[in-house]
């Protein structure tokens, strides 16, 4: 298993780079527009996943461990191959993907070439509960269309329940997050509510350990 590579870039194109490693030029498929630097001679380090097929060995590379993590989850979804997963990561950041999954919103995935409505819905169902840690990243942005405030709160509440939180606990967290001045958009409110819930769980665990 090739976990990572580092070396000077020999060549680069749309969605691929060739990196020199030990005198060999290794071609790596990468999310389009998300890997830098990608100019000849620049030093580049990538987290990688080697996908083995009967007739090919293809190396996929990513700038962050979060992208690699999401890639692994995506290719485990029925009907999503490595190329389609790479397309998703070219169009969406890991935190945007996590927010869409948490809110059970398949629309962002339907915009990706090669991802149809059924596959988009399957992605949100299959990844539910697996990417919650990424929804807290500071660079997360809204992955869904802005909606009226009440609809946003309802969507966030449904997302939290889908992640395993009780209705009453999730509802209180959403209200507390709003009262504390959380952003009035889906991703921002979700991050704030999740932070409150996880902080509360940690506090309970600390008290129980005494």
Largest β-sheet summary: 5 strands, antiparallel
The CATH homology group name of the largest domain: 5' to 3' exonuclease, C-terminal subdomain
Helix content: 40-55%
* Class by alpha and beta content: alpha+beta
Count of DSSP-assigned helices: 8
Within the largest sheet, what's the order of strands?
3-2-1-4-5
CATH class of the largest domain: Mainly Alpha
Low-confidence stretches: 138-148
Short recap of the structure:
The protein is α+β, with helices and mostly antiparallel strands. The chain is 45% helix and 19% strand.
Characteristic key phrases:
5-stranded antiparallel sheet; 210 residues; alpha+beta; Helicase, Ruva Protein, domain 3; 45% helix; OB fold (Dihydrolipoamide Acetyltransferase, E2P)
Please explain how this structure is put together.
The chain is of the alpha+beta class and 210 residues long. It folds into three domains: 4-62, Beta Barrel (OB fold (Dihydrolipoamide Acetyltransferase, E2P)), CATH 2.40.50; 65-136, Orthogonal Bundle (DNA polymerase, domain 1); 149-203, Helicase, Ruva Protein, domain 3. It has helices at 65-75, 82-91, 94-102, 107-110, 117-126, 149-162, 167-179, 186-209, and strands at residues 4-13, 16-21, 24-29, 43-53, 56-62. Strands 3-2-1-4-5 form a five-stranded antiparallel beta sheet, with helices on one face. The radius of gyration is 19 Å and the shape is elongated. It starts with a strand and ends with a helix.
């Amino acid at each position: 298993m090739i976990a990572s590579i580092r070396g000077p870039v020999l060549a680069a194109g749309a969605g691929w780079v060739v990196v020199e490693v030990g005198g060999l030029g290794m071609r790596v498929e990468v999310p389009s527009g998300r890997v830098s630097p990608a100019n000849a001679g620049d030093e580049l380090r990538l987290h990688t996943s080697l996908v083995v097929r009967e007739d090919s060995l293809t190396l996929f590379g990513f700038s962050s461990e979060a992208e690699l993590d999401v890639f692994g989850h995506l290719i485990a979804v029925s009907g999503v191959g490595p190329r389609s997963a790479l397309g998703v990561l070219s169009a969406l950041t890991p935190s945007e993907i996590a927010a869409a999954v948490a809110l059970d919103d398949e629309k962002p995935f339907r915009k990706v070439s090669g991802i149809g409505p059924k596959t988009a819905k399957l992605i949100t169902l299959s990844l539910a509960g697996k990417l919650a840690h990424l929804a807290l990243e500071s660079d997360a942005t809204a992955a869904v269309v802005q909606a009226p405030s009440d609809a946003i709160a309802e969507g966030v509440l449904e997302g939290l329940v889908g992640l395993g939180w009780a209705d009453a606990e999730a509802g209180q967290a959403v209200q507390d997050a709003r009262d504390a001045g959380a952003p009035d958009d889906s991703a921002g409110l979700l991050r704030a509510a999740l932070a409150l819930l996880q902080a509360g769980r940690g506090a309970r665990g600390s008290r129980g350990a005494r």
